[in-house]
Amino acid sequence: MFGVVCTWTGPDGEGGLRLLNHDEFFLPGGVRSAQNQDREPWCFYTGPAFSGPRLQLNPRETNRDLAFPARSARRGFCEE
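-> structure tokens emitted (80 positions)
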């Protein structure tokens, strides 16, 4: 069973909340902070369709400012 990732449109858990439990090809407006409650890592991308620079969020990790508005995200390790 998979968990969820809590994401917010602003840094520090501020702004609109969105729960992710499956890959998101496009995140309208982007997300700026996230808390991974899943057993798997998640990869956040600056562009839609899993493109552009990326940042990995490991299981049980919280990132208060992704340093960019993530436009897509998917479960799994960030690939080189």
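The chain has a mean pLDDT of 95.
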